[in-house]
Amino acid sequence: MLTFLVWCVVLFFCWPLALVALILYPLVWLLLVPFRIVGIAVGGVLELVWAIVTLPARVLRRV
After folding, report:
1. By Cβ atoms counted within 10 A, which residue in 6, 12, 23, 53 is the most buried?
2. 5 touches 18 (CB < 8 A)
3. How far are the Cα atoms of 6, 12, 25 from residue 16, in angstroms, in the given order?
4. Euclidean distance between CA atoms 50 and 54, whole angstroms
5. By the 8 A CB rule, do 46 and 54 touch?
């Protein structure tokens, strides 16, 4: 919602810049999708490693 409001303000003050932003925003989003996927994968691997490292402590705590 904030992005839309900023775009409306830019449209009011400088409409060519707003049109360029309207065209470039989806392209930038598409370029950043692989980095988001890598970030999700790295986060999952780090959580898995953390779970493996803390497993002995959790097992001993329950005994």
Report:
1. 6
2. no
3. 14, 10, 14
4. 6
5. no
> In b/e form, how buried is each residue of 14-30, taking b as 16+ CB within 10 angstroms?
eeeebeebeeeeeeeee
Q: Which residue has the higher pLDDT, 21 or 30?
A: 30
User: What is the per-residue pLDDT across 9-23, written as a single tens digit (0 to 9) for each?
Assistant: 988 999 898 889 889
**Residues 18, 6: contact at Cβ < 8 Å?**
no
Tell me the residue range of the domain where 27 lies.
2-62
pLDDT given for residue 37 in this prediction:
97
Q: Distance of CA 51 to CAs 9, 13, 40, Å? A: 47, 52, 16
Q: Quick one: what percent of the chain has pLDDT higher than 70?
A: 100
Give how many domains the chain has, as a whole number. 1
* Tokens (6 digits) for 24: 């470039």
